[in-house]
Amino acid sequence: MEPEAILKKLDEIRKTIDEYFVVDDLKNLSRGGRLSNAGAFIGTMLQIKPLLTFNSDGKIVAFEKIRSLKRAVAKVKKLTLEKTAELPYKDKLRLFVFHSNDLKQAEDIKQFINTNFPDKPVDVAEFSPVIATHLGEKSIAIAWMIDIDKLDLTK
Protein backbone atom coordinates (compact mmCIF):
# COMPACT_ATOMS: atom_id res chain seq x y z
CA MET A 1 0.00 0.00 0.00
CA GLU A 2 1.33 3.43 -0.95
CA PRO A 3 2.04 6.02 1.79
CA GLU A 4 -0.61 8.36 0.34
CA ALA A 5 -3.23 5.61 0.56
CA ILE A 6 -2.24 4.89 4.16
CA LEU A 7 -2.52 8.57 5.09
CA LYS A 8 -5.91 8.78 3.38
CA LYS A 9 -7.16 5.72 5.29
CA LEU A 10 -5.89 7.14 8.60
CA ASP A 11 -7.65 10.42 7.89
CA GLU A 12 -10.90 8.57 7.17
CA ILE A 13 -10.57 6.71 10.48
CA ARG A 14 -9.78 9.94 12.36
CA LYS A 15 -12.99 11.50 11.05
CA THR A 16 -15.02 8.79 12.81
CA ILE A 17 -13.77 9.81 16.26
CA ASP A 18 -16.25 11.73 18.40
CA GLU A 19 -16.76 12.32 22.10
CA TYR A 20 -18.54 14.12 24.91
CA PHE A 21 -16.81 15.31 28.08
CA VAL A 22 -18.26 16.23 31.48
CA VAL A 23 -16.20 18.52 33.71
CA ASP A 24 -16.89 18.23 37.43
CA ASP A 25 -14.45 20.79 38.86
CA LEU A 26 -14.26 24.21 37.19
CA LYS A 27 -10.97 25.25 38.87
CA ASN A 28 -8.77 23.80 36.17
CA LEU A 29 -10.78 25.42 33.38
CA SER A 30 -10.29 28.72 35.20
CA ARG A 31 -6.56 28.16 35.74
CA GLY A 32 -6.13 27.29 32.08
CA GLY A 33 -7.83 30.49 30.96
CA ARG A 34 -10.87 28.74 29.50
CA LEU A 35 -13.15 30.21 32.16
CA SER A 36 -12.98 33.40 34.21
CA ASN A 37 -12.46 33.22 37.97
CA ALA A 38 -15.91 34.74 38.49
CA GLY A 39 -17.45 32.23 36.10
CA ALA A 40 -15.75 29.36 37.91
CA PHE A 41 -16.90 30.67 41.30
CA ILE A 42 -20.52 31.11 40.22
CA GLY A 43 -20.54 27.84 38.29
CA THR A 44 -19.18 25.97 41.31
CA MET A 45 -21.77 27.54 43.62
CA LEU A 46 -24.59 26.55 41.24
CA GLN A 47 -23.06 23.10 40.58
CA ILE A 48 -22.83 23.84 36.86
CA LYS A 49 -21.15 21.08 34.86
CA PRO A 50 -20.17 22.04 31.32
CA LEU A 51 -20.50 19.50 28.54
CA LEU A 52 -17.61 19.71 26.11
CA THR A 53 -16.59 18.30 22.77
CA PHE A 54 -14.02 19.00 20.08
CA ASN A 55 -15.13 21.32 17.28
CA SER A 56 -14.11 20.90 13.63
CA ASP A 57 -10.89 22.85 14.32
CA GLY A 58 -9.86 20.42 17.08
CA LYS A 59 -10.58 22.89 19.90
CA ILE A 60 -12.44 21.89 23.05
CA VAL A 61 -15.74 23.80 23.21
CA ALA A 62 -18.63 23.87 25.67
CA PHE A 63 -21.98 23.15 24.04
CA GLU A 64 -24.20 22.93 27.11
CA LYS A 65 -24.17 23.58 30.86
CA ILE A 66 -26.11 21.37 33.26
CA ARG A 67 -26.66 21.54 37.00
CA SER A 68 -25.26 18.53 38.89
CA LEU A 69 -22.84 15.85 37.81
CA LYS A 70 -25.54 13.18 37.84
CA ARG A 71 -27.69 15.10 35.32
CA ALA A 72 -24.67 15.94 33.17
CA VAL A 73 -23.60 12.30 32.93
CA ALA A 74 -27.20 11.28 32.14
CA LYS A 75 -27.29 13.88 29.35
CA VAL A 76 -24.01 12.65 27.87
CA LYS A 77 -25.33 9.08 27.91
CA LYS A 78 -28.50 10.20 26.10
CA LEU A 79 -26.53 12.23 23.55
CA THR A 80 -24.23 9.27 22.92
CA LEU A 81 -27.18 7.00 22.16
CA GLU A 82 -28.70 9.59 19.82
CA LYS A 83 -25.48 10.42 17.98
CA THR A 84 -24.26 6.85 17.51
CA ALA A 85 -27.68 5.71 16.23
CA GLU A 86 -27.24 8.04 13.23
CA LEU A 87 -23.78 6.83 12.24
CA PRO A 88 -23.29 4.98 8.95
CA TYR A 89 -20.76 2.72 10.70
CA LYS A 90 -22.87 2.06 13.84
CA ASP A 91 -22.48 -1.69 13.35
CA LYS A 92 -18.67 -1.27 13.58
CA LEU A 93 -18.39 0.93 16.68
CA ARG A 94 -15.73 0.83 19.34
CA LEU A 95 -16.49 2.85 22.48
CA PHE A 96 -14.27 4.36 25.15
CA VAL A 97 -14.73 5.74 28.63
CA PHE A 98 -12.06 8.15 29.83
CA HIS A 99 -11.85 9.43 33.37
CA SER A 100 -9.75 11.55 35.66
CA ASN A 101 -9.48 9.71 38.99
CA ASP A 102 -13.07 8.48 38.95
CA LEU A 103 -12.94 4.78 38.19
CA LYS A 104 -16.32 4.16 39.85
CA GLN A 105 -18.10 6.59 37.52
CA ALA A 106 -16.17 5.16 34.55
CA GLU A 107 -17.25 1.61 35.45
CA ASP A 108 -20.88 2.77 35.80
CA ILE A 109 -20.71 4.29 32.32
CA LYS A 110 -19.05 1.14 30.97
CA GLN A 111 -21.98 -0.85 32.35
CA PHE A 112 -24.39 1.54 30.60
CA ILE A 113 -22.49 1.07 27.33
CA ASN A 114 -22.42 -2.72 27.70
CA THR A 115 -26.20 -2.68 28.23
CA ASN A 116 -26.91 -0.45 25.24
CA PHE A 117 -24.17 -1.75 22.93
CA PRO A 118 -23.88 -5.40 24.00
CA ASP A 119 -21.78 -6.56 21.06
CA LYS A 120 -19.41 -3.57 20.94
CA PRO A 121 -15.96 -3.41 22.53
CA VAL A 122 -15.52 -0.86 25.33
CA ASP A 123 -12.19 0.39 26.65
CA VAL A 124 -11.80 2.26 29.95
CA ALA A 125 -8.74 4.44 30.48
CA GLU A 126 -7.55 7.50 32.32
CA PHE A 127 -7.19 10.77 30.47
CA SER A 128 -3.66 11.64 29.42
CA PRO A 129 -1.94 13.98 31.91
CA VAL A 130 -2.32 16.97 29.57
CA ILE A 131 -6.06 16.52 29.08
CA ALA A 132 -6.59 15.65 32.76
CA THR A 133 -4.81 18.86 33.75
CA HIS A 134 -7.11 20.94 31.53
CA LEU A 135 -10.33 19.19 32.56
CA GLY A 136 -9.60 18.59 36.23
CA GLU A 137 -10.36 15.85 38.71
CA LYS A 138 -13.46 13.67 38.28
CA SER A 139 -13.88 14.59 34.60
CA ILE A 140 -15.36 11.88 32.45
CA ALA A 141 -15.83 11.28 28.73
CA ILE A 142 -17.60 8.89 26.41
CA ALA A 143 -15.94 8.52 23.02
CA TRP A 144 -16.40 6.34 19.98
CA MET A 145 -14.91 5.59 16.60
CA ILE A 146 -15.06 2.98 13.91
CA ASP A 147 -13.55 -0.27 15.18
CA ILE A 148 -10.40 -0.72 13.10
CA ASP A 149 -10.42 -4.44 13.94
CA LYS A 150 -13.54 -4.70 11.75
CA LEU A 151 -12.00 -2.91 8.77
CA ASP A 152 -10.11 -4.32 5.84
CA LEU A 153 -7.07 -2.04 5.93
CA THR A 154 -5.47 -3.63 2.88
CA LYS A 155 -7.79 -1.82 0.45
Automatic annotation (TrEMBL):
An example molecular function term from Gene Ontology annotations: lipid binding
Superkingdom to which the source organism belongs: Bacteria
InterPro entries: DegV, DegV_C, DegV_domain_contain
Swiss-Prot/TrEMBL keywords: Lipid-binding
Pfam families linked: DegV
Presence of the UniProt keyword Lyase in the record: no
Gene3D superfamilies in the record: 3.30.1180.10
Transmembrane segments: none
Alphabetical list of NCBIfam families matching this protein: DegV (TIGR00762)
Function summary: May bind long-chain fatty acids, such as palmitate, and may play a role in lipid transport or fatty acid metabolism.
Protein name as annotated: DegV family protein
Lineage of origin: Bacteria, Bacillati, Bacillota, Bacilli, Lactobacillales
